[in-house]
Write a structure and sequence with these properties.
The protein is α+β, with helices and mostly antiparallel strands and 437 residues long. It contains 15 helices and 16 strands. The chain is 49% helix and 19% strand.
Amino acid sequence: MKFPHFFIERPIFATVLSFLIVLVGGITYFSLPVSQYPNVAPPTILVRASYPGATPQVIADTVATPIEQEMNGVDDMLYMESSSSSDGTMQLTVTFKLGTDLDDAQVLVQNRVAVAESRLPEQVRQIGVTTTKQIPDMLMVVHLNSPDESRDELYISNFAYLRVRDALMRLDGVGDIRIAGGNEYAMRVWLDIEKMTHVDLTAGDVVQAIREQNVQVAAGVIGQPPTDKTGAFQFNVTTQGRLRDAEEFGNIIVKRGDDGRVTRLSDVARLELGAQDYSRLSYLDGKPAIAVLIYQRPGTNAVDTAAEVQQTMSDMRKDFPEGVGYEVAYNPTKFVEDSIDEVFNTLLITTVFVVLTVFMFLHNWRPTIIPVVAIPISLIGTFACMQGLGVTLNTLSLFGLVLAIGIVVDDAIVVVENVERLIAEGLSPRDATHKAM
């Protein structure tokens, strides 16, 4: 017995199976990942390192080369590429085979980086080498700005790092957040070479003095047992921790002479509170702004995540400092929402045309019902297949669903018209259906 005839002889079984298809597909629809485009890019891992003051060639020789040598031969790697820039940063992109788990790839890369760290310059190791998952799907871009220009970029940038980034990272569906055009506060020290030469100081001496005296220390406890005498009180000793402003940094002692003379940092340098780096800038409508780049976590719903981001930003706006605002400059999920709406509109329009066309030519309401019922069963059941195959709801898959609606309708109409023709020739409905199929 051929496959279609099995269901013709068992109409109750076919009806129950159709209900199950609709039920499973409907449940699966709400858990399907949603994105603008399908994930066709291979997974990549980024390795970042910083060597302040070094030229791109020095960074390539002393930082990039040792890491690349250790990275050769890592499992499932396709290729890697590195870039060294004049701002002292190095970025190595390791690309893996399509389908490789990002978490496993990150562990493999991190293990190789750990082996190479012993060959890196001391300053690079102190700053740290980071290994992160590269997420290709940029979900949204939110720009923080100052509409009345009362706040500068540095203030807005630190607000983004301290408040906005942490709040958005806690949202389900957000994979990574990067701040473009922003920097954190830093104490900038401008050394006077002539004054340093006069007191026989080098830049390394100054760095070492800052490192030793700008620390957070535990000073201990007074009256803690065991003691010779029983004390009634016990006190924690609190000392000055890390330095906070230019005046305190200026009092750092960088050299002490044999005659008791003391050279402080302010004697050989100019200090000011500024940004850590001024090489990255961001603008919105020609005005300075801080761009918050939000990346989607793979396998999540882009539409729901974008809605949560906008709701969170709206809630935080009530507590924004005076003079700070935000604008959503890029939100591709609108296209996904429009695509989903178009699928439902197409389904509705198709159903209406099918009903009118079939009823107009067959003059019977019974054959009209069959194509109308076949359309939602086929489409809703497709969602379960998409989940099983790992396909997301994106612009291309939704476009395919729109095309599939026409195919389902055409097939249903052809079968129904053929059955009606055979019934008119004198066959029973069962025999006519068998012959039509």
